[in-house]
């Protein structure tokens, strides 16, 4: 009899978990799943981008620097380093969220994310935060490994941080949109090859935009990557090509818009739910 | 003749009839599976590498500005263009073959290919020729597109062709070995990120060796990609020392033969593809 009472007691203890306004446990679980997903293959997701960025830096420095070439009042390599760092961060944020959603869709385990009691905004936040984390981790690793070779100094650390977080967030959200829209790996490869890479290459990472013909300077100002890289670089060398305030305000505004679009898509279940 | 087991079929190629059939087999695997596949995905296999390489050229043109010759008689862009083209060629050859093999293995389609009466050497060339064709096509298209920056250039057709085909052969064979060895994409991207890309970037595509400190130069001179790029650049622009190219070309041929032998051996053994 005593035993029965014990079992009774246990049964009442495992009553359904009540979830408050925010499913903190669920959100945390989704976020840590996103982080573990890329840490599990850290050679591909952290090491490879770091090595590639350092190689790029070496190649461009050897090919273009060395002749006392200066851009914006600093050595070419000092000018280049922050831009490359930002490019790698954004590419990795995008890759993380887009591949996470697409792989889940292709393999069918997206239901494991859709079924739990997670609100659309919690799902969006958990996945986006994973992408931002990867971007920032890659950025920090690149930063510290560049410090081994270059005297890098931060003129305005908070500005650099602001632009880093906003840029990673923008690409993480874009990656989610891409991942939701894409139905095959080809689709996401096309977005990466024909939209993300060109925008990030033609953003003023490798040259100061006053190199461009006048007509193209105006075009460059429509490229969000220009503001990310320019603002981030301002945080390092204290010199910006454009107006830094424009970027500092524009990026969060764009992020807000992207957030609403993403949230809307997840709520309606566009290409996620049958 | 069709009764021959796969292992013997290549040894009994005597009459013309049988030889034609052997070619037909390679053709089927090469064309029907390889070429049709990359042409179907031409956006990724042709357009993708072209767009990113042309972006690279644009960025270099903008970053360099109008000034400067890299070496006497060649502008920096003229110096970079051939190297970039042949690097993309090598990478495409490697990736294409790897992709085909890994996808065939993952989807289990490889058994269909293994069941067909194909000898190991036919399998080897069936797979690698598709990668070679894709790579050469990318390089030709790229060289055409690059004339926007460089103007038309061709110094020696034969040197260009020799180094282009050597590069495609060598890297498609590396692709075969890596593709057979890879159980997952991880192993492929390991080699791609930590071997192929560094070999290509640290090879004198973008700068001459005298930009490098003396005691590091040997590292570049020992890089097969460096020989390929120097040779190909010689073929296109006429810049480079012919003496060096002859021994470098010689070693390349030896390397290719070694890799062909490795690929053949792996297919013969059925390494990771036969139970």
TrEMBL record, chain A:
<dbReference type="GO" id="GO:0140359">
    <property type="term" value="F:ABC-type transporter activity"/>
</dbReference>
<protein>
    <recommendedName>
        <fullName>Transport permease protein</fullName>
    </recommendedName>
</protein>
<feature type="transmembrane region" description="Helical">
    <location>
        <begin position="76"/>
        <end position="95"/>
    </location>
</feature>
<feature type="transmembrane region" description="Helical">
    <location>
        <begin position="135"/>
        <end position="154"/>
    </location>
</feature>
<dbReference type="InterPro" id="IPR013525">
    <property type="entry name" value="ABC2_TM"/>
</dbReference>
<keyword id="KW-0813">Transport</keyword>
<keyword id="KW-0812">Transmembrane</keyword>
<keyword id="KW-1133">Transmembrane helix</keyword>
<dbReference type="GO" id="GO:0043190">
    <property type="term" value="C:ATP-binding cassette (ABC) transporter complex"/>
</dbReference>
<feature type="domain" description="ABC transmembrane type-2">
    <location>
        <begin position="40"/>
        <end position="269"/>
    </location>
</feature>
<keyword id="KW-1003">Cell membrane</keyword>
<dbReference type="Pfam" id="PF01061">
    <property type="entry name" value="ABC2_membrane"/>
</dbReference>
<comment type="similarity">
    <text>Belongs to the ABC-2 integral membrane protein family.</text>
</comment>
<feature type="transmembrane region" description="Helical">
    <location>
        <begin position="41"/>
        <end position="64"/>
    </location>
</feature>
<dbReference type="InterPro" id="IPR000412">
    <property type="entry name" value="ABC_2_transport"/>
</dbReference>
<feature type="transmembrane region" description="Helical">
    <location>
        <begin position="160"/>
        <end position="181"/>
    </location>
</feature>
<feature type="transmembrane region" description="Helical">
    <location>
        <begin position="244"/>
        <end position="262"/>
    </location>
</feature>
<feature type="transmembrane region" description="Helical">
    <location>
        <begin position="188"/>
        <end position="209"/>
    </location>
</feature>
<dbReference type="InterPro" id="IPR052522">
    <property type="entry name" value="ABC-2_transport_permease"/>
</dbReference>
<dbReference type="InterPro" id="IPR047817">
    <property type="entry name" value="ABC2_TM_bact-type"/>
</dbReference>
<keyword id="KW-0472">Membrane</keyword>
TrEMBL record, chain B:
<keyword id="KW-1133">Transmembrane helix</keyword>
<keyword id="KW-0812">Transmembrane</keyword>
<feature type="transmembrane region" description="Helical">
    <location>
        <begin position="190"/>
        <end position="209"/>
    </location>
</feature>
<dbReference type="GO" id="GO:0043190">
    <property type="term" value="C:ATP-binding cassette (ABC) transporter complex"/>
</dbReference>
<dbReference type="Pfam" id="PF01061">
    <property type="entry name" value="ABC2_membrane"/>
</dbReference>
<feature type="transmembrane region" description="Helical">
    <location>
        <begin position="76"/>
        <end position="103"/>
    </location>
</feature>
<comment type="similarity">
    <text>Belongs to the ABC-2 integral membrane protein family.</text>
</comment>
<feature type="transmembrane region" description="Helical">
    <location>
        <begin position="155"/>
        <end position="178"/>
    </location>
</feature>
<protein>
    <recommendedName>
        <fullName>Transport permease protein</fullName>
    </recommendedName>
</protein>
<keyword id="KW-1003">Cell membrane</keyword>
<dbReference type="InterPro" id="IPR047817">
    <property type="entry name" value="ABC2_TM_bact-type"/>
</dbReference>
<dbReference type="InterPro" id="IPR000412">
    <property type="entry name" value="ABC_2_transport"/>
</dbReference>
<keyword id="KW-0813">Transport</keyword>
<dbReference type="InterPro" id="IPR013525">
    <property type="entry name" value="ABC2_TM"/>
</dbReference>
<keyword id="KW-0472">Membrane</keyword>
<feature type="domain" description="ABC transmembrane type-2">
    <location>
        <begin position="40"/>
        <end position="270"/>
    </location>
</feature>
<feature type="transmembrane region" description="Helical">
    <location>
        <begin position="124"/>
        <end position="149"/>
    </location>
</feature>
<feature type="transmembrane region" description="Helical">
    <location>
        <begin position="42"/>
        <end position="64"/>
    </location>
</feature>
<feature type="transmembrane region" description="Helical">
    <location>
        <begin position="245"/>
        <end position="267"/>
    </location>
</feature>
<dbReference type="GO" id="GO:0140359">
    <property type="term" value="F:ABC-type transporter activity"/>
</dbReference>
<dbReference type="InterPro" id="IPR052522">
    <property type="entry name" value="ABC-2_transport_permease"/>
</dbReference>
């Amino acid at each position: 009899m005593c035993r029965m009472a014990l079992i009774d007691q246990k049964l009442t203890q495992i009553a359904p978990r009540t979830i408050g306004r925010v499913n903190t446990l669920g959100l945390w679980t989704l976020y840590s799943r996103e982080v573990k997903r890329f840490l599990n293959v850290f050679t591909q997701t952290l090491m490879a981008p770091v090595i590639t960025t350092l190689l790029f830096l070496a190649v461009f420095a050897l090919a273009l620097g060395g002749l006392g070439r200066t851009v914006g009042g600093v050595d070419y390599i000092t000018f280049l380093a922050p831009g490359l760092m930002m490019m790698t961060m954004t590419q990795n944020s995008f890759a993380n969220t887009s591949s996470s959603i697409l792989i889940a869709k292709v393999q069918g385990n997206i239901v494991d994310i859709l079924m739990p009691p997670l609100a659309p905004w919690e799902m969006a936040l958990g996945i986006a935060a994973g992408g931002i984390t990867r971007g920032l981790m890659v950025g920090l690793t690149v930063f510290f490994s560049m410090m081994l070779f270059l005297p890098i100094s931060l003129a305005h650390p908070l500005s650099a941080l602001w632009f880093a977080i906003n840029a990673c967030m923008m690409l993480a959200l874009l990656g989610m949109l891409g991942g939701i829209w894409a139905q095959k790996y080809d689709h996401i490869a096309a977005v990466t090859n024909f939209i993300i890479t060109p925008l990030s290459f033609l953003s003023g990472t490798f040259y100061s935009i006053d190199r461009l013909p006048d007509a193209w300077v105006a075009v460059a100002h429509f490229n969000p990557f220009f503001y990310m890289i320019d603002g981030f670089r301002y945080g390092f060398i204290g010199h910006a090509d454009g107006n830094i305030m424009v970027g500092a305000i524009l990026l969060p505004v764009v992020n807000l818009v992207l957030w609403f679009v993403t949230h809307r898509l997840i709520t309606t279940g566009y290409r996620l739910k049958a | 003749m069709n009764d021959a087991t796969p292992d013997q079929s290549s040894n009994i190629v005597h009459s013309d009839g049988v030889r034609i059939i052997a070619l037909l087999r390679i053709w089927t695997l090469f064309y029907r599976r390889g070429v049709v596949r990359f042409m179907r995905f031409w956006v990724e296999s042709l357009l993708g590498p072209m767009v990113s390489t042309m972006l690279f050229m644009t960025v270099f043109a903008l970053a360099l500005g109008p000034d400067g010759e890299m070496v006497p008689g060649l502008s920096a862009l003229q110096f970079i263009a051939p190297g970039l083209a042949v690097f993309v060629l090598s990478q495409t050859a490697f990736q294409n073959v790897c992709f085909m093999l890994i996808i065939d293995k993952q989807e289990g389609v490889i058994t269909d290919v293994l069941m067909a009466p194909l000898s190991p050497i036919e399998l080897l060339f069936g797979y690698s020729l598709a990668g070679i064709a894709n790579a050469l096509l990318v390089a030709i298209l790229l060289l055409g597109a690059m004339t926007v920056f460089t103007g038309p250039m061709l110094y020696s057709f034969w040197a260009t062709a020799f180094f282009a085909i050597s590069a495609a052969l060598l890297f498609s064979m590396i692709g075969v070995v890596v593709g057979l060895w890879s159980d997952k994409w991880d192993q492929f991207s390991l080699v791609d990120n930590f071997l192929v890309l560094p070999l290509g970037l640290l090879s004198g595509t973008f700068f001459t060796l005298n930009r490098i400190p003396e005691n590091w130069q040997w590292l570049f001179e020992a890089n097969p990609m460096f020989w390929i790029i120097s040779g190909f650049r010689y073929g296109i622009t006429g810049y480079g020392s012919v003496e060096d190219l002859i021994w470098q070309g010689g070693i390349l041929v030896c390397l290719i033969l070694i890799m062909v032998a490795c690929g053949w051996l792996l297919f013969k053994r059925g390494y990771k593809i036969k139970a």
